[in-house]
Amino acid sequence: MTYYKVTTDDPVVMHRIVTLIRNMLGLMGNIAEVEAIRPKMQKSELILSFVALESFSSPFYDAVSDIMEIKYSAAGILSHMCSDGRGSWMIDYPTYDDIVQICPHVTERWRSRTDCCTPTRIWLPW
Questions:
Q1: What is the C-alpha to C-alpha distance for residues 113 and 25, in angstroms, rounded to an integer?
Q2: Are 5 and 52 spatial neighbours (Cβ–Cβ below 8 Å)?
Q3: Residue-by-residue DSSP string for 51-84
Q4: In this predicted model, what pLDDT tens digit does every residue of 14-63 receive, in sequence order?
């Protein structure tokens, strides 16, 4: 997997990038809810991308609710992927325990419950 660093100080471009990331994570969250598909998502690079996004921030973008939605969605995807239990985890890195420890820390880093309007719910598949 190739990563590209996208940098811009243009608020309009940054808004488009954040919107794209937010929408892609929404779709990935829907996919992660499907139990039969989750094993196919167990790729180190993909999971590490979600780990990186759960700590996403930008000095050039100040729409806190969008950034919080990205963090929330990334953590939700990771939670779905762990929901089948340790026995279903098929990759060596990151480990199941690594990811299980990350998810609760996402909400601990949120400054306050007033930072965003993302609805909170237990991160479990429906």
A1: 21
A2: no
A3: HHHTT---TT---HHHHHHHHHHHHHHHHHHHTT
A4: 888 888 888 999 999 999 999 999 999 999 999 999 988 887 776 666 67
What's the full length of the chain, in residues? 126
pLDDT mean over 90-99: 94
Of 105, 109, 110, 104, nearest to 123 (Cα)?
Answer: 104
User: Hunting for tokens 């089948």 — which residue is that?
Assistant: 84
Establish whether the linkage from the previous residue to 94 is cis, with ω within 30° of 0: yes
pTM score of the predicted model: 0.78
Q: What is the mean pLDDT of residues 100-111?
A: 71
Model pLDDT, residue 57: 72
Tell me, what DSSP letter sits at residue 10? -
Q: Which phi and psi (to 5°) does residue 61 adopt?
A: -140, 120
CA distance 118 to 113: 10
